[in-house]
């Protein structure tokens, strides 16, 4: 059975994509620690990050770093947070989010009912910084 992330990647569930290539996608999480909180996910279903092939793990981190730079640019944050948890969905993913302090590193502090307009605006800001279209592909 497909994970919720695979269903988002395949278009069965909605997602606010900011980046996409053949191996890796990046989309906004539905419960962000801050607006601009992105999940960087392999297209291939890999449960634990420790199970990813080295080349795939390298590509995930390449994209996470690119998204991190976009987060800093788009939101003016002093840092981009980076977190691997992986208990919510059995599909490896990296959390990348605007960070001014350590508060974003607690996923207990998420915005449970984010404003859809704010989420759309955050996705647009990130796509502009990344130079991608609404599907996350290079514009």
From TrEMBL:
Residues 4-107 form the HIT domain. InterPro entries: Histidine_triad_HIT, HIT-like, HIT-like_sf. PROSITE patterns: HIT_2. The active site is at 93 (tele-amp-histidine intermediate). Keywords: Hydrolase. GO terms for biological process: nucleotide metabolic process. A motif (Histidine triad motif) lies at residues 91-95. GO terms for molecular function: hydrolase activity. This is HIT family hydrolase. It comes from Corynebacterium sphenisci DSM 44792.
């Amino acid at each position: 059975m497909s994970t919720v992330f695979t269903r988002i990647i395949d278009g069965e569930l909605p997602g606010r994509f900011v980046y996409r290539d053949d191996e890796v996608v990046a989309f906004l999480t539905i419960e962000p620690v801050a607006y601009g909180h992105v999940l960087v996910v392999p297209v291939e279903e890999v449960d634990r990050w420790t199970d990813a092939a080295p080349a795939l793990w390298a590509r995930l981190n390449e994209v996470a770093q690119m998204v991190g730079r976009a987060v800093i640019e788009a939101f003016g944050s002093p840092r981009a947070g980076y977190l691997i948890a992986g208990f919510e969905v059995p599909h490896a993913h990296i959390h990348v989010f605007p960070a001014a302090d350590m508060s974003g590193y607690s996923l207990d502090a998420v915005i449970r009912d984010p404003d859809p307009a704010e989420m759309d605006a955050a996705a647009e800001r990130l796509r502009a910084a990344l130079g991608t279209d609404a599907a996350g592909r290079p514009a």
